[in-house]
């Protein structure tokens, strides 16, 4: 393999391995913009992953798999909505419960099926649908960048489309404006006649569903292998929660955030190869302790947090009522 | 009305509780061993479906079933205990309080809590058995681990033969860690030596993921090895089957770990080094049950290998070269008989017909320094502070200690990156 190919593949894998972060982040941003802090991303992604994978395989259809992961994760999100919106439970605790519950459900179902677990390669439509890249005309012909960014599977493009679509929805539509108003000041929004409960329910379900597709992606990318699995999501849900802050609650910036996190995430594995391919320029990479690679994304998040708070401007888009339950009688 | 209802409910529950207790008492048999309790402390959940805790839990329950014991009643477990001496001590107190006569701790960091508990006079009748550690006493505290490197050497032979056939000397190895842990680095070295015994030109490229469990990284690391170095066999020291799936996907071959991964990668898997933890647990529980006073003589510090059936390789798959079975069998017999072992001054050289030649020579690391002297009497390891290569105390007898604890180098032909 020539040296440039190593570099191309490095860029390609930054996208392939980290798109689930984008789904998780976009889903979380939608929920947080409605004023709810949902720490259950990990669990919701796990639920979407397992149901999406199983149903997708049984029906041998990638589209059904995507839809199932969206619906099941959305339904699972209703648990969070009922507990926090209707029953006014503490959001942090409920979110953590969702993580434990979701990951537990993942293992419960997986273990129950251990004998008859579907093998992804036997379901041509799912397997090929996920693995065969869709080449974007013209752009995919560009050397290096074409392969790295414009020849991916359908779920990569779907993730980007969702991120851009949600950005448009939140910033350019009336419903998006109302959603943001609820996140900032639910009492004011309520007095404007906006149905707070309805908005919160809809967006919690929508956000959870999007996270679920991300979980499904993780499962497909790992070949749907349950053997020796520590749960496919394996902490990506938590990174997504951090990415929300990094992206400053903007789904467009979340695309950038995903690539930055993904860069370091992938760099750790590729450091040896890159050093091997470009000994002079990148030889130092293999000498960097791996712990530093693992820590860098979080160090950057900390720096971003410090910078945004130092500036003390109104640039921070954190919803003012984030994490607070809204109870009409307390107005 | 509500009050009455709640009183009735409470009463029903109380009655049910007693009824349940009564049942368990009735069910207890008369066999002398039916009240022997086994205690276990796990680092993860007993409900895991794979991985380290699962392997141990499965080993203990299998052994107990073989001994005709009832795991539901006779096995007491405290799980999800981190490597924190105070928490482990509490777990030991819990299990001792329940009446356990032998307590297993499966994680390395439990070592101090186990050493302390074993010295307590009130626990003198309890046997403490600690996996992967190095501490012990003469009466009731041992440690146990296995010579998995022997199985890795055999897997290395299978991989080496494949590389000869494919005329590609590059082998890949996805490792959780590298020279930081003797466990991982002895495994990598044994695999490399096994491959070199049949293909002297074999080079093992190690991609270290620096975590014990991360499936996405395991997959990416295997793909990197295949794409960058054109590796034709992917071996692994990590939990999941991801490296094997990546090998199958990349149309190369692979050696799994912990379980026979042929089911996951039917077109590419060769063989996997595997553990039979139940072999030790059966011996330990049986001895503790029947002759606890002589536990240290009969079981003692346990370091079982191919000979004891504690480690092995999974059945060779159809993907292996035809001559693999014969050669592996010969080398295995040599290790079972105690005629030869991996980390010695004798290097095996195996030709295409399966003839084994023994060459006595110093073992060199990948920087060219001698790590086992040519006469086989001195073992070396790097001093972690000064970085200098130093002889390990104990001469020839240091061998097991080096493999278990102080090995921190790669042998010649291993490249990290």
Identify the notable features of this structure and list them briefly.
A: 331 residues, mainly alpha, two-stranded antiparallel sheet, 71% helix, B: 417 residues, alpha/beta, Rossmann fold, 2 domains, 13 helices, 19% strand, globular
Would you kindly provide a written description of the structure presented here, covering whatever features stand out?
The complex is a heterodimer of chains A (331) and B (417). Chain A is mainly α and 331 residues long. Chain A has one domain: Orthogonal Bundle (ABC transporter involved in vitamin B12 uptake, BtuC), CATH 1.10.3470. Chain A is built from 14 helices and two strands; from the N terminus they run αααααβαβαααααααα. Chain A has a two-stranded antiparallel sheet. Chain B folds into two domains: 36-146 and 277-304, Response regulator (Rossmann fold, 3-Layer(aba) Sandwich), CATH 3.40.50.2300; 148-272 and 314-416, Response regulator (Rossmann fold), CATH 3.40.50.2300. In chain B, 40% of the residues lie in helices and 19% in strands. Chain B has helices at residues 2-27, 52-66, 71-74, 85-98, 111-119, 148-166, 182-198, 215-229, 242-249, 277-290, 295-298, 324-336, 399-406; strands at 37-41, 75-78, 100-105, 127-131, 141-146, 170-175, 203-208, 233-237, 253-255, 273-275, 302-304, 311-313, 346-350, 356-360, 363-364, 370-372, 380-382, 389-391, 414-416. In chain B, the strands form six sheets. Chain B has a six-stranded parallel β-sheet, with helices on both faces. Chain B starts with a helix and ends with a strand. Mean pLDDT of chain B is 90; it is low at 22-30. The chains are: A mainly alpha (331), B alpha/beta (417). Chain A binds chain B through residues 1, 5-6, 9, 13, 17, 107, 110-111, 114, 218, 221-223, 225-230, 232, 234-235, 266, 268-273, 275-277, 286, 290-291, 294, and chain B through 47, 49-51, 207-211, 213-217, 219-221, 223-224, 227-230, 239-242, 245, 249, 258-259, 261, 263-264, 416-417.
